[in-house]
């Protein structure tokens, strides 16, 4: 073609790959959006799983993760680095989820709405339904430790940092969670 203009191939701009957590943290503290993009890419999926286990609703879990990153963006300057950034994000997420759960409870009281004893969908296996029901009934702190340890595979040291409790407390709460779940599952009608 005569007179055609040749444009260079355009490649999408890739955010820099921060090699260490310290580099990533420094970028985030500078409010570098590529740092936050990498932070989101590295932690969002795991945070959504944690949030879903707390709020039991996919949309609320996604909203909680988004709110977590907004809060992290605003508070990153105050992050001391005493724990890993993933642990810090998880702590923010748990607080956001608890706030959301309290807000939802104030909006709709399940007893008044007539949905407190709604049966679970039939397509779910009975044991899964019994376990989910029992998990909803145990103490929230015990449930959180159980989910972080048994479902997410975190170590007690990580759970202790996330929940800001001694490691021994994490172990004790897991023991109590298993004891409560075992009792409830044994009492459940077969």
Describe the structure in your own words.
The chain has 190 residues and is an all-alpha fold. 68% of the residues lie in helices and 0% in strands. The longest helix is centred in the N-terminal third of the chain and has 23 residues, at 33-55. It is globular, with a radius of gyration of 22 Å.
Structure at a glance:
With 190 residues, the protein is an all-alpha fold.
Please give a handful of descriptors for the protein shown.
190 residues, single chain, globular, mainly alpha
**What order do the helices and strands follow?**
HHHHHHHHH
Helix share bin: 55-70%
Task: Indicate the mean pLDDT.
Answer: 80
Determine the number of helices (DSSP H or I, runs of at least 4 residues).
9
Largest sheet: none
Layout of helices and strands:
Elements: H1 21-29, H2 33-55, H3 58-75, H4 85-107, H5 110-113, H6 126-137, H7 140-151, H8 156-163, H9 167-187
